[in-house]
């Protein structure tokens, strides 16, 4: 090989080395950018996980609170139902008592109607006797 060929080969190799060096530099930059993007992505994933955990905790708290409200409402409804049942029983008993009183009053009025003629006859008999007594007293006082 001649000196010119060697110089040409050295020059060509130098250019190839420079090109490879630029390519390597670009690859290093690309890898650094990719590493930076991976780190940003990792941070974003961690942030998302924290948000999801916070949301899950909040949802669990809300679910627990809702469950407690449902149970409290169920107890209140049961108490109301029990109270209503007792009230209905008292109303039913009062209606039965009123019905009984009404029946007794009807019986009493019926008995009064039956006894009315007897009472009127007795009152008329008493009135007649009083009239006789009064007439006798007037007759004695006139004589």
Describe what you observe in this structure.
With 143 residues, the chain is an all-alpha fold. It has one domain. The chain contains one helix and no strands. It has one helix at 3-142.
Task: Describe this protein with a few key phrases.
1 helix, 98% helix, mainly alpha, 0% strand, 143 residues
Instruction: Give a count of the beta strands, DSSP E runs of length 2 or more.
Output: 0
Instruction: Determine the fraction of residues in helical runs and give it as a percent range.
Output: over 70%
Beta-strand percentage range: under 5%
Shape: rod-shaped
Terminal Cα span: 198 Å
**How many H/I helical runs?**
1
Largest sheet, if any?
none
Reading the helices and strands in chain order gives: H
Name the poorly predicted regions. Answer: none
Counting structural domains, the number is 1
Structural class: mainly alpha
What gyration radius follows from the Cα positions, in whole Å? Answer: 59 Å
Question: Which whole number gives the mean pLDDT?
Answer: 89
What's this, in brief?
Helix content is 98%, strand content 0%. The protein is an all-alpha fold.
Compile the SSE list and pairings:
Layout: H1 3-142
């Amino acid at each position: 090989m001649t000196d010119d060929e060697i110089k040409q080969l050295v020059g060509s190799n130098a250019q190839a080395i420079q090109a490879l060096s630029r390519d390597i530099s670009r690859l290093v930059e690309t890898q650094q950018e990719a590493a930076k993007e991976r780190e940003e992505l990792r941070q974003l994933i961690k942030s998302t996980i924290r948000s999801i955990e916070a949301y899950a905790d909040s949802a669990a708290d809300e679910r627990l609170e809702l469950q407690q409200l449902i149970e409290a409402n169920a107890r209140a409804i049961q108490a109301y139902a029990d109270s209503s049942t007792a009230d209905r029983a008292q109303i039913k008993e009062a209606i039965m008592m009123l019905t009984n009183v009404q029946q007794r009053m009807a019986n009493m009025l019926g008995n009064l109607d039956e006894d009315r003629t007897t009472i009127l006859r007795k009152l008329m008999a008493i009135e007649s006797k009083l009239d006789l007594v009064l007439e006798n007293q007037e007759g004695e006082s006139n004589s």
